[in-house]
Design goal:
Elements (H helix, E strand, L loop, with lengths): L3 E9 L3 E4 H18 L1 H5 L11 H8 L3 E4 L2 H5 L18 H17 L8 E5 L10 H9 L4 E5 L5 H15 L4 E8 L19 E9 L7 E10 L5 E2 L24 E2 L1 H23 L8 E4 L4 H12 L12 H4 L6 H8 L9 E8 L3 E9 L1
Parallel strand pairs: 4-5, 4-6, 11-12
Antiparallel strand pairs: 1-7, 1-8, 2-3, 6-7, 8-13, 9-10, 12-13
Helix pairs in contact: 5-6, 8-9
Length: about 375
């Protein structure tokens, strides 16, 4: 079977950023208004008053300091608290495809080869704009790529599942190069009126080109890929065709399960040991000493989760250079987080040195991709 290489990556970052201070001000204005409008019910004990958020609470809970969003005004409007994105005509490139194309073009430019050599396009993301036509096929058309494309959704693990799929296509000879894009408008699925989660996500798009090794120049040998899923309701979003015909969604009192909801403590307790064990087992099967990994590009969910997983994998306290953190600037960008970390922090490797891309999220789902600098 043919070996695969991660040949290039690309990143599109939205122009607007929201600081914790700005987000807290918007949430607290909403909470104050809600409490005033429901003063009687709060006094009678019928409903609970909303507690204010704070910058200190957000940073301690997550390590996040800011996030990029596609529409700042809508997110920070206390009367709306959701991005305001007008629908586009079907004849126009959709906003998710537009973001994906921008990231893809950067990856193709870094690759230095014509897009016509790409045989497949995968759109691997957790927040798809529509059921069909597939976003991947729209991106494929915008880039002028022949072959085929399809969408892939495994929540925050979508990118590693996409890399695994691309590697398998290379191995079997189906195509010579695969473009995988991860456009994430996570702000559209985040409940900005929920104090426990209003700060978690940010918007971004990433792209990865996976190529057959005997045609690649430089890049990263893919030593092995592994996937794992275990069903859990602890991270969930119930929005879909069964309820999408009801635009007036109840966004009050933390009850809207058609947006992102999670049981954070349970997720931490269950996912950290699952992912740590998966990484160590996969490393052992590949003959890779985890203690000698030069860098970890983990899913950017929560700084406390990333620190604990890194300590378990490396067997010691990791340095900032070993355990890359970008969520302070980008927040949790779902499938794109580990790709952003890899894209921005993959320098300084000598040929033969190894690193790990790893994702974990709803499902539960997890993916590991061990790479070696060529």
């Amino acid at each position: 079977m043919r070996q695969a290489v991660i040949a290039a990556t690309g990143l599109h970052t939205p122009a607007e950023s929201v600081s914790n201070a700005e987000l807290v001000a918007a949430f607290n204005a909403f909470a104050e208004r809600f409490n005033a409008q429901n003063a009687g019910a709060i006094a009678s004990g019928e409903i609970a008053a909303l507690e204010p958020s704070s910058e200190g609470f957000i940073e301690k809970a997550s390590g996040i300091k800011s996030r990029y969003v596609v529409n700042k005004a809508g997110v920070l409007d206390p009367a709306r608290m959701a991005p305001d994105l007008p629908e586009r005509p079907n004849e126009e490139l959709s906003i998710l495809a537009e973001m994906a194309v921008l990231a893809a073009r950067e990856a193709i430019a870094a690759w230095g080869k014509p897009a016509s050599l790409i045989g497949a396009v995968l759109c691997a993301a957790s927040n798809m704009q529509r059921p069909y036509p597939a976003m991947a096929v729209e991106v494929q058309g915008a880039l002028g790529v022949e072959g085929f494309g399809f969408d892939l959704n495994v929540a925050c693990s979508s990118a590693t599942f996409g890399i695994k799929t691309a590697v398998d296509y290379i191995a079997t000879g189906s195509v010579d190069a695969v473009l995988m894009v991860n456009p994430e408008i996570t702000s559209a699925h985040l409940n900005f009126r929920d104090r426990d989660s209003h700060f978690i996500f940010g918007d971004v798009a990433t792209a990865v080109i996976v190529e057959r090794a005997d045609q690649a120049t430089g890049g990263w040998d893919v030593l092995g890929t592994r996937l794992k899923t275990v069903f859990s309701n602890n991270i969930r979003n119930n929005f879909g065709f069964l309820n999408s015909t009801h635009p007036e969604r109840d966004r009050l009192a933390h009850q809207d399960d058609r947006l992102f909801v999670q049981q954070g403590r349970k997720v931490f307790k269950e996912v950290v040991p699952m992912v740590s064990a998966m990484i160590l087992e996969h490393a052992g099967d590949l003959g890779v000493d985890p203690r000698r990994l030069k860098r970890l590009w983990l899913h950017q969910a929560n700084i406390n989760m990333n620190d604990l997983i890194a300590r378990r994998v490396l067997g010691r306290e990791p340095t900032p250079e070993e355990n890359v953190i970008i969520l302070d600037e980008y927040a949790n960008t779902s499938s794109a987080g580990s790709i952003i970390a890899f894209h921005k922090h993959n320098s300084g490797f000598a040929p033969g040195e190894t690193g790990l891309l790893c994702s974990f999220g709803a499902g539960y789902s997890a993916g590991t991709v061990f790479v070696r600098k060529r």
